[in-house]
Amino acid sequence: MSGRGKARAGAGSARAERAPARRRDRRIGKAAVPYLLGLPSWVYLLLFFLVPLASMLALSAAVGDPIVGYSYGGHFAEFLDAIGQYHRQLLRSFYYGALATLVTLAIAYPAAYWIAFHGGRHKSTYLFLIMLPFFVSFVIRTVAWQFILADQGFLFGQLKSWGLISDRFYILSTQWAVIGGLVYNGLAYYVLPLYVAIEKIDRRVVRAAGDLYADPASTFLRVILPLSAPGVFAGFLLVFVTDVGDFVNAQILGGPGTYMVGNVIQDSFFVNQDYPMAAALSSILMFLLMVAIFLYARAFGRERIQEYAA
Amino acid sequence: MAAQLDMPPDMPPAADPMARGARPDRAGSREHLDVRLDGVTKAYGHLVAVDDISLTIERGEFFSLLGPSGCGKSTTLSMIGGFAEPTYGAIYLNGVDVSRQPPYRRDVNTVFQSYALFPHLDVYENVAFGLKRKHVDRKAIERRVRDMLALVDLTGFHDRRPAQLSGGQQQRVALARALVNRPKLLLLDEPLGALDLKLRKQMQLELKRIQSEVGITFLYVTHDQEEAMVMSDRLAVMAGGRIEQVGPPDVVYDSPATEFVAGFLGASNLMAGEVVERGGALARVRLDDGLVVQVARGRLGDRGPRVKVGVRPEKIQVLPAGQPVPEGRNSLEAVVAMTAYIGVSHQYTMEGPDGRSFSAYAQNLGTGPHPARGDRVRLCWHPEHTFVVEPSAPRAAEESSA
After folding, report:
1. What is the mean pLDDT of chain B?
2. What residue intervals traverse the membrane (chain A) (predicted)?
C-alpha cells in the first residue's frame, strides 16, 4: 500500500492532491487490518475444513474400491443405501446423544451452581477437581469404566458374591453403559460453560427476587435459570454434537445392540474400506446435526440470550 | 396522579371505598402499622457491625438512617429486609416479630443501591415480578403496574430492557418495582448514590412527592446529610454501629446530642471548656483559653463539668473590629484567614485568639465591603445558638473531623 502511495507521489501530482490520497490509502490499510489478522484462521479453515469437507462430499458420490481406485461420479445412490442400511444406528445416535446430554445437564447444573454460588474461595479448586479426570486419555478413562462395570469385576463381582444382586446382572454392552460413558465423558464440557454463566449472575439480582416475594424455587425458575440460559445453550451444543458422533463409548462399553453411527463410519473406513459409504454416512450425520442445531437455535437461541448474556 | 393510584386502605380519606373492598388481605393490619427494632445487634465474629439498636418508626413516616460508611446503617437495613439475621434482639413489623422470617415472607420491599433490576425482563415484567409471585389477579397486576409506571413517569417504556434505560430511569423502575407491591415498609439503600448531582436533587423531591402520595413508610439509608435533611420527617444519625441521635432534621441540626453529630450533620465550631455557673437563665462555660461563653440554661441540661460548646457557622455574625457588640451576645476577636465566595454566601475561615480556627457563613445581603483576608474582626453569636455536647471518645472525635 505504501508502495502505491510512493508511486503516486513520484508521478508528480500536486501536493494538495497528494495528501488526501495518501490518507485514503492509510484508511484502506486500516480497514484491512482485521482481515489480515484473521488471515491465518481463514487459511486454516480452508485447508483443514473446507478442503476435507469437499473431498468427503465428493468421495461419498464416488464409485470404486481402494484397490482399483475411485472414479468421481454422481453416484448419489450411496446416500440412499446408507440411510436404508444404517438408519437404525443413525436414530440410535441421536437418541443416545439427546438422552446423554440431558443427563449430563442434570448432573452438571447442580455442580456448576454449587461451585458458583457456594464454592467460596475454593471455586478454582472444585473446577480443577472436575477437570482432573480429563487429564487422562479419553480411551483410558473409558476402559477404566469397562473395568469397573465388568460383569465379574471388583464392583459387581463383589456384590454378586455377597448375593446382593443377581448373578445374571450386567450393565456392560447395554445402552445404559454407553449412555453412562457419554455422560461421564461430557460432564466437564457442560460444567464449564454453565459455571461461567452462573458465576456471572449478579447476586444482588438474586437478592432482589427474594425481596419481591420469590421463594427459593421461583427465584431459581424465574431468575437464575433464565439468566444462566446462555450456559445451558452453549453446553448443550458442545456436548450433544460430540455425543452424537461418538464411537468410543459404544465400542468399549457397548455391544452389538448399541452400535452408533460413529461405529458404522469407523467400520466402513477401517474395516470394510468402503470409503464412499463412510463418507456418505458422515455427510448425512453432519447434515442432520446442522438441522438439529438450527431447530434448537430457533427454539431456544433467541436474540435475548445474546442480549443479556453480554 | 393521586386519583389514578389506588391507595393502601390504611391511608386516610383519599382512598376510595372500592379500592378498600378490593383488598381484604390488608384489612387485618390497619390499626397499628410501624417498625420497631429492639436491642438489635449484628456481629460478624468479633466485629460488631450494629450494636444494640432500638428504634421505632411511625407509619407513613419518611425516616432516614444517616451515617458515614461502615457505621452499620446498611446492615441495619439488611436485617429489616431479611437479608441478614440479627445476632441479638428482635425486629417487629406491625407488632409481629419478623427477625427470623426470610425476605420473601416479609411485607417489606427494597430499592437497592445498584437497582438490581432483572436484566432478562423488560420494564413491565420487572415491575410485575412481585405481584406475580404473590399471585395477584392478572387484570389487577396489569392495572397496578400501569398506574405505578405512570406515577414514576415511565409510561411508554414498558417494553424496554434495563440495559436500554438511563441511570435515572433504572432508578425509577427500581422504585416502581418495589412500590407496586404496596409494602408496609419501603427500604431504600442509598438509591440516589449513582446519579449525578442535578438528577439526584430532582429525584429527592420526586421521592418525597411519591412518598406523600402513596403514604407508605420509607426507611432511607444515606451518607449524604443534605439528602437526609431534605427528605426526612425524622432521621437517626449512626456511628460505629450505634445510634447517636434520633429526631426531626431541624432539631438534630440545631441541638446535636453528641460531638459526632455536631461534626457530621453540617459544620460546627466546637470549643472545649468547663461549666462554671449553671444557675439562672444563662449558664456560663469557661473555655480552655479563658474566654467565658454564655449558654441558654436549657441547652446545657445536666451535662458537665467538662463539655464542648458549639456554634454553627451561619449563626455567627462577623463584625468589623471595634464595632460595638449587641447586648448579651457571646463574642471573640479573630483574624480572617481565608474567604470563599459561593454565590449565596461568603464563607470565612478565621483564626481565634489562641490559634483556634473558626468558620462562619454570611449571606450576601448587604452592599457594603466584605471582610478581607488579614482583617481583624469580631465574631458574635446568641447564647440561644450555643449548643453543648459531652466531649466524645477520641475515636468518634477523629471521625467527626474527617
Report:
1. 84
2. 32-51, 94-115, 127-149, 169-198, 219-241, 277-297
